[in-house]
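Q&A log
Question type: sequence-to-structure
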Amino acid sequence: MNLSCVEKRMHALLELGVPGCSISIRRDHEEIYRHVCGTRGRDTAEPMTGEERFFIFSCSKPITMAATMQLVERGVLTIDTPVSEILPEYGAVSVLEDGKLVPPKTPITVRHLMTMSAGLDYNLRGRLKAQGLWGSDVTTRQIAEAIAASPLIFHPGERFKYSLCHDVMGAVIEEAAGMRYGEYLKKNIFEPLGMTNTGFNRNVSNLAGQYECLEETGELIDIGTQHPYNFGTRYESGGGGLVSTLDDYALFADAMACCGVGATGARILTEASVHALHENQMGTFVKDPTFSCATGPGYGYGLGVRTLIDKSQGQRSPLGEFGWDGANGAFLIVDPFNHLSFSFMQHIRNWPRLMGEFYAPIRDEVYEALGL
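Response status: OK
Response body:
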């Protein structure tokens, strides 16, 4: 097994301007490949070690989906539970249609939140400012209330729209479980899997240097510890708020790839729940999908994750391979058929070349090298 292709791809990223990045590839709880390269930031010679903390942004979403499926397994929720049964304000939402507010044709359900088809958008800052909820004390529950107070942009189930659905799902989990969302994740996912460096605790010690790529010039600017969804210590964003490390996130990825069982032996999900996540929802549920995927063509959308549904362009991973990525470059591949996972970390926001020149090629090259 020769995975030098991975190192070559990662060093090509350094040549493009990425200060440092790291990857862990695991199979059946064994790390079969690891590579850490570059420095902790552009203005330091301190090498990246793989122990750095990262804002993983939307790579938080698969964890939120796993937590949702736990509550489904326990009978606390079903996929089609109306959200208003947990968050009553969602029973009074309206839809902005042809300039008028009309009742939704169907209530928002857990499935709608999981599949990004609830009629929400991603305009969180505007909502909070308009409703006077801009402050360090705003809570996860208050965020959900603020989102419900704005009209839906389409009827639930009508189409896909990447949005704040998973942030609302975090509030649903918090209410249904009777504890803060971060505490639920700690008790039911992080501690069982041995993830000691993941959470919403705003701990930015040992944070890798964070940069943003300016679209006009391609220049990388240092943005320090900025995080657009960290409004304070009480808000825990299910859609993008987690901080993690390469090794911690790899423990989660490995558990999902091993059909719900972690390297510690702890089971966080049943095999059936893991496979339910990658069942494509777009063909039968979402009327008008407007979906694009950073990993390239061939993907649909399952219960909160991309899922491979078409290999006609030579994709090497199996149908049903799933995962997601984050705005700063964190990336996840889960293959529950071969018990294989990829976890990748880097820290540059708005880096379009990374998506086109790294994710899909490295996926296919690794599968080829493994003979899969």
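Response note: The longest strand covers residues 30-38.
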